Amino acid sequence: MTGPVHLRDATEERLFGGKCVSLGVALRAGLPAPDGYALSVELVVQITAADEPVINAVKSLFAELAPAVAVRSSAVGEDSEAASFAGQHVSVLNVMTPDAMIMAIRQVYDSAATPEALAYRKKMGIADEPAIAVVLQQQIQSEISGVMFTRHPLSGDSERYVEASWGLGEAIVAGLVVPDGFRIANDGSIIERIVGEKDIKLVSTSTGEVEEVEVDTDKVEALCLNDHQLSQLHELATACEDIYGRNIDIEWAFHAGKLYLLQCRAITR
User: Fold this and answer.
1) What is the four-CA torsion angle of 254, 179, 118, 21, rounded to 10 degrees?
2) Which pLDDT tens digit goes with each residue over 47-100?
3) How far apart are CA 211 and CA 200, in angstroms?
4) Pick from 87, 42, 37: which is nearest to 61 by CA?
5) Which CATH class is domain 5-138?
6) Where are the domains of the chain?
7) If you placed Cys at 85, which of 69, 78, 121, 246 could pair as Cys (CB 3.0 to 4.6 Å)?
8) What fold characterizes domain 144-266?
C-alpha cells in the first residue's frame, strides 16, 4: 500500500489522480502552491473501509497542516482538454480536527458516486469506475480569489481573462456572485476592467464552517484587484504556461498580500 506522500512527490496519476500530480508539478517548479499531502486511490479506499492503522496515520498529518485543512478530490482521468470534473466531486474546506478530516475524505470519496457525477462520466464516454485520490493542504483563508484563463474562454482570443471576488473562490464556482472581470494582454497591459456585483462572500469560521456573509456596501461594486495584483496574476500565468503549456485554467487566491496557485488544468473544450 502507498502511504501518504508529500504533495511535491506525487508523480503517478494512476495512483494519485490529476490534481495531486498537477500540484506536485507546481511545487517542484517553485510555483506558489500550498504544500500538503497526497493520499493515493488505494489509501482512500482503505480509509472508507475503516482501516484503523491507516486512519491513524492520516490523522497524524493534521498537526502539520493545522489550524485548518482543505480536503480536495483528485480523480484519475479528471480535467483533460475534453472533460473537466470541476463541480462534480466535493471539496471540503476549513476542516479543523483530525476526525473531521477523515469524515471529509469519506465525503470526497462518496461524491464520485453521486448520480450527477456518474451521469457526467457517462456523457463524456468514461467507462472506468471512479478512482478518487485526495489532496490535503493547509487552508488558504483568502481575502480575494478567483480563476484565470490564459485564453479567453468565450472569444478564444490570446489574452488572460480573470474573474475575481472577495473571500473564498467557491462563491464564483457556485454562481453566488457576479465576479469582477479583467482582460490582460499577453504583454501584461490591462485591456479591460469590468465591475461585478459581489454582494456576498464565503469565509471560514473558527468553528470549522464556511459561512456566507454580506460584503460591505462600498465593496459590492468596487474592483477587488488592483493593477499590482493583476501584474502578479499575469506573471503567474506566464510561469504556469512555461510549465504546463498554453491554454490553461488557473485557480488562485490572495492571502495576507501573497498570491497562491490552487490549481492548474487544461481549458476544457
Assistant:
1) -30
2) 999 999 999 999 999 999 999 999 999 988 764 444 444 456 788 999 999 999
3) 10
4) 37
5) alpha beta
6) 5-138, 144-266
7) 78
8) D-amino Acid Aminotransferase; Chain A, domain 1 (3.30.470)
